[in-house]
Amino acid sequence: MLRFRGLLYGSDWFHRVLVGGMPIVTAVLAIALWRAIDNSREVAPSVLSMALFALSYLGLAISLWPHLIPAILGYTAYSYWVFRGKVTGSFGYH
């Protein structure tokens, strides 16, 4: 139990390396995006912007990890409870 709790709350080395590397990767992507915009490229700024956007959501998910799982499970249980019996086999999901 103690080992699982350590993994859940981020006391292991992997979590620290992952969180510690996020600012470095973000800075590298931001510099690459700035250079791609200065060089008047067409595809690279778009791809780098999407990568920077995805990286921001990844950082948010990493920082909220211990609290994210109960919220998702609670929302799923609540939505199943609210919509119980509303959808039958004859209607399906259409």
What's the gist of this structure?
The chain has 94 residues and is an all-alpha fold.
Describe the structure using short key phrases:
94 residues; mainly alpha; flat; 4 helices
Descriptive notes:
The chain is built from four helices and no strands. It is mostly helical and 94 residues long. The protein starts with a helix and ends in a 12-residue tail after the last helix. The protein has one domain. The mean pLDDT is 79. Helices cover 76% and strands 0% of the residues.
Number of strands: 0
Query: End-to-end span in angstroms?
Result: 44 Å
**Sheet/helix structural class:** mainly alpha
Helix amount: over 70%
How many structural domains in the coordinates?
1
Judging from the principal axes of the Cα atoms, what is the shape?
Answer: flat
Estimate what percentage of residues fall within beta strands: under 5%
Largest sheet: none
In the predicted model, the low-confidence regions spanning at least 5 consecutive residues are: none
Number of helices: 4
Average per-residue pLDDT, rounded, comes to 79
Radius of gyration: 21 Å
- In N-to-C order, the SSE pattern is HHHH
Topology:
Elements: H1 2-8, H2 13-38, H3 44-63, H4 65-82
Helix pairs in contact: 2-3
